[in-house]
């Protein structure tokens, strides 16, 4: 016995499903990346949208207009971005990017060069050669330890490498 998905949905939920064509609208289209977008995230207050692209940039947009507020030159494609609870930082797989310069609302001037990001705390350089702290090089990574993927959480970095190995590094800094 076969039946359509619509019949199955109607059986599970007697209220008819919403027709997306009649109930949604495109509010705006944000244009400006030179390649496909890999990841997007709303700020917690929904005032901004961040987009990470294969063009190796992150753009911060005003969600109520089509204005690009900030463009960051990352140097690699980011697969995952999210705002922290204060909306002052972007969490990424290579570390936390400080975007607090956007505390006041301003639009990026047309033709402006992208900013180089300032990373907060522990991170990986965009080329995967360094473990950094507050954007300063800390530990140089030999070729066999360089990431094909990574994650950073507080003082710990997890790195997947091309050989199939995964290694975890916990960093303790002396503050003397």
UniProtKB/TrEMBL annotation:
Repeat found in the keyword field: yes
WD repeat ranges, renumbered to this chain: 30-71
Statement: the UniProt record of this protein carries the keyword Repeat: yes
Entries under InterPro entries matching the protein: WD40/YVTN_repeat-like_dom_sf (IPR015943), WD40_repeat_CS (IPR019775), WD40_repeat_dom_sf (IPR036322), WD40_rpt (IPR001680)
UniProt keyword annotations, A-Z: Repeat, WD repeat
Matching Pfam families: WD40
PANTHER family tied to this protein: F-BOX AND WD REPEAT DOMAIN CONTAINING 7, WD40 REPEAT PROTEIN
Protein name: Uncharacterized protein
């Amino acid at each position: 016995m076969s039946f359509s998905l619509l019949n199955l949905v109607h059986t599970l939920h007697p209220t008819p499903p919403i027709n997306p064509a009649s109930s949604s609208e495109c509010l705006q289209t944000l244009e400006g990346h030179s390649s496909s977008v890999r990841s997007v995230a709303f700020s917690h207050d929904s005032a901004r949208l961040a987009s990470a692209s294969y063009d190796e940039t992150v753009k911060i947009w005003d969600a109520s207009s089509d204005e690009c507020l900030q463009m960051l030159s990352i140097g690699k494609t980011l697969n995952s971005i999210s705002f922290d609870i204060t909306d002052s930082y972007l969490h990424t797989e290579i570390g936390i990017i400080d975007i607090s310069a956007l505390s006041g609302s301003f639009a990026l001037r047309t033709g402006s060069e992208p900013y180089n990001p300032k990373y907060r705390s522990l991170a990986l350089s965009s080329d995967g050669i360094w473990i950094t702290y507050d954007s300063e090089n800390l530990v140089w990574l030999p070729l066999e330890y360089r990431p094909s993927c990574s994650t950073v959480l507080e003082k710990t970095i997890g790195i997947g490498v091309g050989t199939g190995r995964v290694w975890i590094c916990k960093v303790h800094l002396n503050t003397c």
